[in-house]
Amino acid sequence: MYKSESIRIPCVIMRSGTSKGIYFLGNHLPSDPQKRDKVILSVFGSPDARQIDGLGGADPLTSKTAIINPSSRPDADVEYTFGQVDIKSSFIDYSSNCGNISSGVGPFAISQGLVKAESPITSVRIHNTNTDKIFEAEVPVSDGIPLSEGNYQIDGVPGKGAKISLNLAGTVGSKTGRLLPTGNPSDILHIKGIGPLKVSMVDAASPMVFVRAHDIGLKGTESPAVIDQNPDILQLLEEIRTEAAVVMGIAPDRNTARQKIRAVPMVAFVAPPTDYENHLTGTTISGDSIDFVSRDMFMQIMHKTYSGTATVCTGCAAVTPGTLVHEVMGASRTSGLIRIGHPGGIIEADMIRNECGIITRAAIGRTARRIMEGYVYVPRRVLETD
């Protein structure tokens, strides 16, 4: 009997926040982790700079995957694993979560029948296996179907959609177990090429290291093109990231941070609020409309907008006295709406830090849309080779 040269695997492509990902039910992938990763790499077309033979978009923001399962935990509805699929190597980074891809997990789980739909809002408790943390998504629903149309707009995505609220307060200490991994709101790192550098290392949703833009010779309002085409600043930012990874206890050494833990900690450089040009639209973002500017480095290039997990972590840093983010904000607030000016617009974090210094709310608004569902074809040889 003829044996098909390909196998077909059900999947869903979703635009989630300002990212795009391929979503799988866990039981549709091989149970063996090595075979599973081979299949996912083939689906995306990695390794290849254009990902021409797969579904990846040749950009870190569109080379992401989500694997969803029912949860065995009584405090969660579903289990979710995020994977950052490398473009140029056979590597999938499972070391952190992604806030944008997280926004698609609730709608996906409802559509797949993993969570019962309840109008007008269905709350989905999500256990993220990357960080072993639980967060909650509030998904608008009508007639048992997650809504994608609505009046909520996020910068970096054309049009408007239905607002999905993600409360990620439960993700504080996502990798290190503490909001401030060293116990300090600021520390000094010794960075090759510049010497001692004051930073803030914060861990919520995804660990980050913050620096003041002027301390590394930047304004803070640079566009992705300006940074991504400057090899010297890229190298400096990677030096900061890898050094912070070791100090935060995320990686045992800098080589491991470079080779195996590439997504975290993310590096962000911050500056006081000022007017600047939105690189996506060419319009002016007023300094009066934001609390500070920040630029988030993701997978060693600048994020075109600002990642969801970075928004949560930056919001937590902003309401924590003594951090560089709190200082550049220039206000003594420890709660409220934090407005972050990013390259493509503004993103907000709804923050509450109680009198004991505990973050009780760290919420962001996102939109998501189911773009395609069907089968992706993977060459059978991918599973048959060792």
UniProtKB/TrEMBL annotation:
<comment type="similarity">
    <text>Belongs to the PrpF family.</text>
</comment>
<dbReference type="Pfam" id="PF04303">
    <property type="entry name" value="PrpF"/>
</dbReference>
<protein>
    <submittedName>
        <fullName>PrpF domain-containing protein</fullName>
    </submittedName>
</protein>
<keyword id="KW-0413">Isomerase</keyword>
<dbReference type="InterPro" id="IPR007400">
    <property type="entry name" value="PrpF-like"/>
</dbReference>
